[in-house]
Design brief:
The chain has 16 helices and 2 strands. The longest helix has 38 residues.
Length: 462
């Protein structure tokens, strides 16, 4: 059992390392070719940010597949199945369309057509849904057209869900990484726990997907130095969909003996079979709720349902007082709760304590959601281990020269004279920053980053 884990870990690390090392040169290339679109009204970053991060992620995907093909415990996936080649073919096509869109802003219908063609390419090479398990009925074999349509629909929905959720720095990559980690645990259990060989490709796909996201996240976390763009969001969405299709369409439910015993036992046993279809929904859940709320909000205000605005969920998290990083972490929390909760319930569906844990975690998430003003304080001894934004700056401010611009405090205005001395270090720490523009986005393509965030009154219209 330990040997396959080591091979998967090696594949993940190589994928992450290649993605991480390629992202820096790709950022310079994106700046050189001008793949830096102008800031739109609904964007939360303040400076033009280079895209094309999907180039580095595709390089990591290729490196992971090459390494896995040369490992003793993983090369059988390439010998017994054509699914890795099908994935690479579909990924190359969708990645190429994404690169062109990041540079030239392709029409939405062209991208939709490319997504359907990429899914069809994978179907032609054998990566398709062959059957569906239905409780009380058994395994229902699908015709070629039914399997093709269902496969294409799942690929298109997953790709667009990931693309839709890509609204904050590090949000899409982090949520996909969380979902793929849960997916990996599920697929690995099917392969080495139940000895189902057909689950091997999905296990490999999710390990590589985790490496792609982990390698890109250090460059994409707030303030992001580069965006993955459509070349990255569509790519990781397709890989996630391919893993779901591989497990759902290729693993025969009869090998798990799920239709034996009582009706209740069969219902509980059916849960692991439907998990591959449910896990991509952990990505779709937040965007789907955001989409429904947006349609209702715009229609209520007499606007077109397709009109762009700043009323999305991540915008609202920023408006109620959450910082950019905290808004992303809150969405991470809910994604992990849904993904790992679904996997845990599929393993021990008869245990009520799993339900209690999920309910308790949901309560904690709601409390965090309603506490936007909570600011973590790092002990002085831990300053060297945390990012600079969380460190105490007492010594730095005591030794630093005074600035011409005085900090603005919440209230009627800045205090003068002795009151300034009484503020001490608390003045700059409590100075409000406008929502969505809490600092330079890190994407200064042509210059150094600003060391100090812009401070202005909390009732500022900007």
């Amino acid at each position: 059992m330990g040997q396959p884990v080591r091979d998967y870990l090696l594949t993940l690390c190589v994928t992450a390392a290649v993605t991480y090392l390629l992202t820096g040169p790709v950022r310079k290339f994106a700046i050189a070719v001008g793949a830096m679109p102008a800031i739109r009204a609904r964007d939360v970053h303040r400076e033009p940010t280079p895209r094309l991060g999907g180039i580095a992620m595709f390089g990591g995907l290729c490196a992971g597949l090459i390494v896995a093909d040369h490992l003793h415990n993983l090369k059988s996936v390439f010998e017994l199945s054509n699914e890795p080649r099908a994935l690479l073919s579909g990924a190359a096509l969708i990645w190429l369309i994404g690169v062109l869109d990041d540079k030239f802003e392709l029409d939405a219908l062209i991208k939709l057509g490319a997504q359907m063609i990429a899914a069809a390419v994978m179907v032609i090479q054998g990566l398709t849904i062959l059957w569906l398990p239905i409780p009380g009925v058994g395994t229902v074999a699908l015709t070629q057209w039914q399997g093709t349509l269902l496969t294409v629909a799942l690929v298109v929905v997953t790709i667009n869900a990931v693309n839709f959720v890509d609204g904050l720095d590090g949000l899409a990559a982090g949520m996909v990484c969380i979902a793929s980690a849960a997916f990996f645990l599920y697929a690995y259990r099917l392969w080495f726990g139940n000895m189902i060989e057909a689950a091997a490709p999905a296990t490999l796909f999710t390990a590589i997907l985790m490496g792609m996201c982990l390698g890109f996240l250090p460059h994409n976390m707030h303030p992001a130095r580069i965006f993955m763009g459509d070349s990255g969001s569509m790519l990781i969405g397709l890989v996630l969909a391919a893993a779901a299709i591989s497990v759902t369409g290729q693993v025969d439910p009869d090998t798990m003996r799920i239709f034996e015993g009582s009706e209740r036992g069969a219902t509980h046993a059916m849960l692991p079979v439907f998990i591959p279809l449910l896990l991509p929904l952990t990505i779709i859940a937040i965007p789907a709720a955001d989409l429904i709320l947006a349609i209702v909000r715009r229609t209520w205000n007499g606007q077109s349902p397709f009109a762009a605005d700043r009323g999305h969920l991540h915008h609202r998290l920023l408006e109620i007082g959450h910082s950019h990083s905290r808004a992303v972490l809150i969405m991470y929390f809910w994604s992990a709760l849904i993904a790992f909760g679904a996997v845990g319930y599929s393993v021990h569906s008869a245990s009520m304590w799993i339900v209690f844990v999920i309910v308790a975690a949901s309560a904690v998430g709601l409390i965090l959601l309603l506490m936007p003003r909570f600011t973590p304080r790092t002990p002085h001894w831990a300053n060297r281990f945390v990012p600079p934004r969380y460190r105490h700056r007492a010594k730095e401010q005591a030794s630093s020269p005074s600035y011409d611009e005085k900090p603005v405090t919440v209230g009627s205005g800045a205090q003068q004279g002795p009151a300034d001395a009484q503020m001490g270090e608390e003045g700059p720490e409590r100075a409000p920053v406008a929502v969505g523009v809490s600092g330079v986005n890190g994407a200064t393509a042509i210059g150094a980053r600003s060391r100090f965030p812009e401070r202005r009154s909390i009732d500022s219209p900007r």
